Amino acid sequence: MRVRRVSVGVGVIGAGNIGQDHIRRLSRVVVGSQVVAVSDVDAERARKVAETVPGARVHASGHDLIADPEVDAIVVATWGPSHEEFVLAAIACDKPVFCEKPLAPTADACVRIMDAEIASGKKMVQVGFMRRFDKGYRAMKATLAAGNLGAPLMVHCAHRGPRAPSTMSGEMLITDSAIHELDLMRWLLGEELTAATVLCPRPTSSQPELQSPQLVLLESTSGVLIDVEVFVNCSYGYNIRCELVGDLGTVALGNGDGVVVRHAGQRAGHVPADWIERFADAYDAEMRAWIDSVATSRAVGPSSWDGYAATAVATACLASLASGQRAPVQMQPRPAFY
Ligand code: NAP
User: Fold this and answer.
1) With CB atoms 3.0 to 4.6 Å apart as the test, which of 221, 227, 258, 286 could cross-link to 133 if both were Cys?
2) Angle, nearest 10°, between helix axes 280-296 and 17-28?
3) Ligand 1 atom closest to Cα of residue 275
4) Which of 74, 78, 279 to mutate to test the pocket of ligand 1 (most atoms within 8 A of CB)?
5) pLDDT in tens, 156-196
6) Ligand 1 pocket residue status of 45, Cβ below 6 Å
7) Which atom of ligand 1 is nearest to the CA of 85?
8) pLDDT, tens digit, for every residue of 13-69?
9) DSSP assignment of 234-303
């Protein structure tokens, strides 16, 4: 990989919600990066977004963008089924790539990406599991590592969002939402997940056609049990919870760093509107880490293996959602490369 200017020249494929947010972040927040090219299947959207970044050019396709000699590194922010082709093309072009979650929707596609990366001889992929960069989760991991809580026994999680688009399906509660917990629990506990059971209570009265909420029960290699409430249309706001129960104590995410107001006999605090607000700092930190890793050629952050493992666990969750039965996670052994 050749970085020719002081800053890393980034090309962004996919100028939708998260693509635009990453473009803003790479242009205005992260030091040492410059968005030099944008591409989207909607050429007009790509043009409008590129206009917000001085000097950024528009490419007709993601593959043209990857081949652009001004592009040092790639962000893939298209929809999941197209991630594999762009990540493979970036690796073939010897350019580091940040790929939004999921790395790919099937475990086989993730294996093809790992095979290409291993053949290249160096780590070139970071997956967009930004919660690993959240201060609260990092403090939980550090607390667990300090040992005072003893061995972890259980983790209770909730992943709530205010409303779901009409295009959302029951499967997407797993592949789009719970996938963050599937990665985060592996990272927090430092071990793999071995089985999944998905249970479905009655749906909401406002959106009865959508199977939300769901309860996802995960098992880890050492026998930790994890429950995740996934509730994407809870109405009241975006609310993420996580409490780890150990032998000797517990550690939980705080309520965020907002203020609590006590007035007229009431106590009130703010609930974030969405994931962009709740994890703004984490997104900034993940992009800083990625740009630093590109500039120093030292990969950090969630790897292709992590992307593969999360997709493998999601596949087990989907099998359980369909069958109503406990489903084992099918995973190949971790390659020494990772
Ligand atoms: P989005 O708003 O639909 O944006 C995706 C963009 O990519 C759209 O403009 C889409 O065009 C375009 N696109 C689709 N296929 C393409 C292709 N082959 N080549 C070029 N452009 C293409 O979706 P989003 O919400 O930004 O999500 C994008 C990805 O980020 C997804 O994988 C999602 O899971 C992930 N994501 C991650 C987080 C996180 O917290 N880490 C949060 C949100 C999203 P059309 O609309 O015309 O199809």
Assistant:
1) 286
2) 60
3) 40
4) 78
5) 999 999 999 999 999 999 999 999 999 999 999 999 999 99
6) yes
7) 18
8) 999 999 999 999 999 999 999 999 999 999 999 999 999 999 999 999 999 999 999
9) -SS--EEEEEEEESS-EEE--S-S--EEEETTEEEE---SSHHHHTHHHHHHHHHHHHHHHHHT---SS-
Mutating to test ligand 1, I would choose from 12, 13, 79, 131 the residue with most ligand atoms within 8 A of its C-beta, which is 79
d(Cα 301, Cα 284) in Å, to the nearest integer?
A: 13
Among left, alpha and beta (phi > 0; psi -120 to 50; other), residue 113 is alpha
Neighbours of 115 (CB within 10 A): 14
Atom of ligand 1 nearest to the CA of 176: 34
8 Å CB contact between 135 and 109: no
Cα of 193 vs centre of ligand 1, distance in Å, is 27
Mutating to test ligand 1, I would choose from 40, 131, 177 the residue with most ligand atoms within 8 A of its C-beta, which is 40
Evaluate: CB of 176 within 6 angstroms of ligand 1.
yes
φ, ψ for residue 176, nearest 5 deg? -100, -35
* pLDDT above 60 (res 302): yes
* 277 in contact with ligand 1, CB cutoff 6 A: no
Distance CA(175)–CA(178), nearest Å, equals 7
- What lies within 8 Å, CB to CB, of 257 at 6+ separation is none
Amino acid 113 reads: I
Q: Where are the alpha helices (DSSP H) in the chain?
A: 17-28, 43-50, 62-67, 83-92, 107-120, 135-146, 170-172, 179-189, 275-278, 280-296, 304-323
Name the strand (E) or helix (H) holding 10: strand 8-13
Are 153 and 245 a contacting pair, CB within 8 Å?
A: yes
Q: What is the pLDDT of residue 3?
A: 47
Residue 136 scores a pLDDT above 70: yes
Instruction: From 97, 94, 116, 69, select the one nearest 12 (Cα to Cα).
Output: 97
State whether the beta carbon of 19 lies less than 6 angstroms from ligand 1: yes
Residue 103: both structure tokens together? 């790395």
Contact 158, 240 (CB under 8 A): yes
